[in-house]
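Reading a protein record of the kind used here takes little practice once its layout is understood. The reader may check this reading against the record printed directly beneath this paragraph.
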Amino acid sequence: MRQLLIVDDERHAVRGIKAGVEWETLGISVVHEAYNIRTAKEIMSDSKIDVLICDIEMPQGNGFELLDWVKIHYPQTEAMFLTCHADFSYAQKAIQLGSCDYMLKPVRYPELASTVKRALDKLTKADLDREKLQFADMYEHYYRLWESYQPMFMERFWQELLSRSIPSTKEGVREALAKHNIAYEELPHYKPVLISVQRWHKELTLREEKIMEYALRNSFEEMILAKSGLGRIIQVRSGALLALLPIRQEEDGEQLHEQIDSYIEACNRYFFCDLCCYMGSAVPVEEICDMYEQLAELESHNVTRTNERLSLTNCSVSPDVAPLPVMSGWGEMLKLGCGKEMLEEIEKYLDSVKHTGQADARWLRSFYEDFLQMVHQVLHAKGLRAHQVFSAMVLMKREDAVTRSITDLSEWVGVLIYEVSGNLNVMDETQTVVDKVKHYIAKHMSEDLSREDIASHVCLHPDYLARLFKKDTGLTISEYVLQERVALAKQMLAKTELAITSIAYELGYGNYSHFSKMFKKATSVGPQEYRKLQQSGQAKGS
């Protein structure tokens, strides 16, 4: 949220401005007041002021002097003048000093709000530009480091040990090390730390992601890894690093925890990612693989906690999970078009589960499957099929990506509800659908019309279309088709000399007898008799 400072020696003017605009709707959480330049400088020194509204003529210095000072000490602050001096030289000087606007008293509050909003938009754009520049500079730095990095023997050794290419026994480890003249006894016990990226805040290409993972690795080496040359950090898979910290008896465990916490905070702030660090117990080299597998299991069950340091000693791998919700109520809300309210209720529920920690990976997968089943049931009831509703993004989203955490699941639910709700809302425009059906029937009157063909034309399930059509017209689709064919037959019999057999074929009937039977059923007379009655009536009329 932003902060704003109003500087004017007239107290009633300051209070009027403060009360006349709904600042919170503009994103301003705090509005400061100052009645002279000295107080204004004190406030700006204590608080991050984003927008400054200033009078010009005041005791103890004027607004130009204040803006000149602001541009030197707080150049990112957007400043504007609000004064009763309609003097061109004043306005010119304000522009020269970098003021974003020059307004005259009394100002209309909507105009003031609009001016402040433009200043805030300018600040937002500047923030985004700075963030992009910061990311580009940081990316370039680690790209150069990454290019020059060459893997060493010890990393290959650890990779082979973790993949169990080297037996996880003292003898197997000793033999592998001896090939490179390293004595087993030289290696200390190690404390494994699994660093797992939960999500990137920016969309990254595969190449960019690899560079950023190297940035995480390099920072861990600089901030934490022992300088003895025996510690290592290894890429175990995409988005996951395993740090192996050489542990000595005299080392302070509390200090290591503080270092890990600082590392997590730095990664979150500077590398635009969320991650967790899973800490194992100090073990000899041959037990590293077993310890890593325990950490990987702990990681797979963590679906609620983010940007935290977790340990095998204080985290339960199988927490008491919450019971899965009954989703039928959500399904009814979706059918009724209450997608927004439904999403709010689901997000509130998932938030409560997240805060209580009553979820694991299996619970997330079960929720995902039940939710998807509920959505399919709603679509079936509405006569829609999933491929007609879900975008490529939803269809391609893999289950393991969706169920990685409650946050990922919540985002996926939001996208799914948005797409389903949008399609259901379009469907509920029943008159449009029925009109399309009527138009299709009129255009294909000479064909053998089936309910399935008509439903396929409007992308609806035949049963649902039948209910929809009957509700709107009072007729079944077959009754409507017969009604339209009979009406057209009457016109053709009365106004043309076409043979009745030709008329039957023109209206989609394969033979005369079937046409005659259906016509008589609808009009109580056969087609030939109807033509005679019409012709005799016309003759009498003439």
